[in-house]
Design brief:
globular; two-stranded antiparallel sheet; alpha+beta
Amino acid sequence: MQLQSILTCPECGHQASGQMPTDACQFFYDCEGCGVRLKPKRGDCCVFCSYGSVPCPPIQQAGKSACCG
């Protein structure tokens, strides 16, 4: 299981590497580049699934059709 993911801001394109939590989903992330608060896209459980290079650990374990809510 991968725990590192690169978040890419859809507003400014800033990229930041982050450690994903293994016991919860991260609903918000404040971009370090432009300050916009990222929220999951409709149908995604967290910001890593929406904007990360790797889906969050619960989705990695359960498969793409699962939701970690």
